[in-house]
């Protein structure tokens, strides 16, 4: 036992009046291991509870992320204390330095505060489909400074959290997982309006990703300069890949129009020539 105590009290290295002992290194390892075990246990408990309750995955992820940062801050403070560095004195002594760093890293701190807001407010959650700067992305993870997303081209995008909290962002998944979309088409004047509406609704009805096919609706929207303008409305949960879905429906519309001799209009202009012959 005495030999073990001697090993613990032996010094690894010495710098001036400071020395790092084996016991301090062991304390650091114990703190790190315990921290990881606590976080692992919390993750298991939270997601097991999430499966058996009405708490959504996004809320569980946000709460777990906040707890993770708090636990690691406490762990770092304990590590500093274990190696003889007083955290309170360190903060007080480096106040001026922290002000300078804060000014230099103002944008970074802004992103961090925005990350805390996102994780606590939960207006944006993992799996949400967002439209930011005319780009549609799906959120894969929310970090303390940045969030990771993937766009429709399967390109991974790193988004500063401040961009999400300060910009106008459309959250397609915020209130419901089903969203209404529109397709516009113009047909030639003289077409049977009722038959065109029936054909449009049939074209959407054929697509397997339509949600609640009873809500499919086609409307005569306007009398255009060269066409009768129609609008097709439908609901779907396939928000992220809506571009392909619209393309499929447009192809079906084109096929059904061709089969039923419905002409898709195109811009036309009539030119009238008038002869102005004067008698000689």
Automatic annotation (TrEMBL):
Tell me yes or no: is ATP-binding among this UniProt entry's keywords: no
The Mechanosensitive ion channel MscS domain covers 108-174
Q: What is its main location?
A: membrane
Sorted alphabetically, the keyword list is: Cell membrane, Membrane, Transmembrane, Transmembrane helix
Subcellular location, in the record's words? Cell membrane
Membrane-spanning regions, if any? 25-42, 62-80
Enumerate the GO terms in the molecular function aspect: mechanosensitive monoatomic ion channel activity
Which InterPro entries does its entry note? LSM_dom_sf (IPR010920), MS_channel_1st (IPR049142), MS_channel_C (IPR049278), MscS-like_channel (IPR052702), MscS_beta-dom_sf (IPR023408), MscS_channel_2nd (IPR006685), MscS_channel_C_sf (IPR011066), MscS_channel_TM-2 (IPR011014)
Q: Per UniProt, what is the membrane topology?
A: Multi-pass membrane protein
Positions of the Mechanosensitive ion channel transmembrane helices 2/3 domain: 65-106
**GO cellular component: a single term:** plasma membrane
One Pfam family matching this protein:
MS_channel_3rd
Domain named Mechanosensitive ion channel MscS C-terminal: which ranges?
Answer: 182-264
Provide the family line: Belongs to the MscS (TC 1.A.23) family.
Q: What is this protein called?
A: Mechanosensitive ion channel protein MscS
Q: Which organism is it from?
A: Winogradskyella aurantia
């Amino acid at each position: 036992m005495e030999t073990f105590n001697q090993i613990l009290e032996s010094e690894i290295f010495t710098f001036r009046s400071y020395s790092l002992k084996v016991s301090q290194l062991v304390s650091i390892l114990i703190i790190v291991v315990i921290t990881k075990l606590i976080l692992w246990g919390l993750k298991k408990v939270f997601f097991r509870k999430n499966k058996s309750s009405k708490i959504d995955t996004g809320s569980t992820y946000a709460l777990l992320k906040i707890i993770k940062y708090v636990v690691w801050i406490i762990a770092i403070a304990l590590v500093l204390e274990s190696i003889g560095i007083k955290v309170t004195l360190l903060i007080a002594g480096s106040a001026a330095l922290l002000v300078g760093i804060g000014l230099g890293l103002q944008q970074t701190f802004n992103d961090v505060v925005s990350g805390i807001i996102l994780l606590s407010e939960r207006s944006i959650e993992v799996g949400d489909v967002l439209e930011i700067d005319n780009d549609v992305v799906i959120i894969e993870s929310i970090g303390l400074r940045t969030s990771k997303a993937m766009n429709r081209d399967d390109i991974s995008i790193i988004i500063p959290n401040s961009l999400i909290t300060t910009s106008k962002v459309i959250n397609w998944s915020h209130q419901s997982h089903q969203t209404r979309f529109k397709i516009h088409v113009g047909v030639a004047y003289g077409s049977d309006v009722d038959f065109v509406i029936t054909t449009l609704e049939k074209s959407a009805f054929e697509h397997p990703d339509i949600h609640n096919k009873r809500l499919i609706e086609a409307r005569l929207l306007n009398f255009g300069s060269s066409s009768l303008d129609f609008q097709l409305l439908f609901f779907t949960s396939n928000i992220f890949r809506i571009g392909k879905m619209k393309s499929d429906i447009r192809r079906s519309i084109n096929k059904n129009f061709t089969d039923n001799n419905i002409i898709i209009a195109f811009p036309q202009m009539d030119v009238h020539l008038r002869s102005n012959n004067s008698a000689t």
